[in-house]
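Bench log. Compound arrived from synthesis this morning; before running ITC I wanted a structural hypothesis for how shikimate-3-phosphate sits in the protein. Inputs:
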Amino acid sequence: MKLKKAASLKGIIRIPGDKSISHRAVMFGSIAEGITSITNFLPGADCLSTISCFQKLGVEIERKGTNVTVKGIGLKGLAPAEETLDVGNSGTTIRLIMGILAGTSFESNLAGDESISKRPMSRVTKPLTEMGASIVGRENGNYTPLTISGGHLKGIEYKSEVASAQVKSAILLAGLSGEGMTTVEEPHKSRDHTERMLRAFGVEVEEEKTTASIRGGQTLTAADINVPGDISSAAFFLAAGAIVPDSSITLQNVGVNPTRTGVLDVLKAMGAEISMGNMSSSAEPAADISIKTSNLKGTTISGELIPRLIDEIPILALLATQAEGTTIIKDAEELKVKETNRITTVVEELSKLGADIKATADGMIIAGRTPLKGGCKVSSHGDHRIGMMLAVAGLMTEEELELEGSDAISVSYPSFFDHLAELSASSEL
Ligand code: S3P
């Protein structure tokens, strides 16, 4: 993929469905009683992996574009799969499905791609084992391929070392089949899509500060789910709109759940000209967000903000190269266990473009503003968010940039380059 400099970005685009919410809608619809209709589903590779896993477990799921119908069979209705459940590149699929499978009475095999095989699973397999599931995998169940046998589960009170919605969700989902109450406490609050959507499916979930609790034995009733646009996808165009000269863009229907809007807080702190309108307030709030070319300054990103923008850090790092002064990103060790080690991949790729960026043990330090130079090859390293960050960088480089591994972008944003072309006045993709 050859990337050319853009003179400006202008226009309005509708952001595709949220990845986290799309996964959950299929999963919860599958274990609910009745027919769940999902609109604005994200047909990205990760969410398609979730559909295929639940089909293998005996659930009838039909997809027409972004409309999905799930014929729920209840948690007890799931049947053993004849083959390995392939989660592809998707951490959310494997970690959440383990929470569900822990409560079944059969054995399942789980595996994914090379990236998944390097990502730690003990953060989920450890609490699920404590609850009564039995899980076997490489290095004491820390790495795929994994075999999970469901069992009679008991509720637990679990203190998670990481603020992770995947860990929290897996434990809460197992808690549905557990005896008594299950409680998860996190160091900071992570995205709460599971809690919100379980309520839409008729389940009682209690939340207090950084703790979520669920009572075992509750059943799910089918619901209609309209997925808002993914703020993590919108972030790439928000950043592009702020740094490409003479730009003014509007992104419609962006999910603005407060556990996800750290990127908006940071953009504001950096001085971005950003405004919100057309707020809708359903279980998952959404809004239209407009941004213009802005005079940005550096900032510090740390602490409770990190889980609220964890997936946006690659694009925020690029933004920081175009901001006056220093940007410090810390408390973000979790970046090391994403689709790639995103501290290493961000620093390696942005350094190629002449950015002043250094890796630290728990984040990175970026000094701006530096012009970005092209005329070289950059790589997504097979990571969708690194690929999109570099595609946005390509809008700023004097010389052409060649992006290797751009196909990874289809994991979360299959129409990314179409949207970029729509907004881009002069880039010929
Ligand atoms: C997700 C949670 C986050 C996020 C991922 C999606 C989810 O991961 O990075 O893209 O849908 O629950 P962690 O739970 O590992 O922080």
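What the model suggests: The chain has a mean pLDDT of 97. The radius of gyration is 21 Å.
ITC booked for Thursday regardless.
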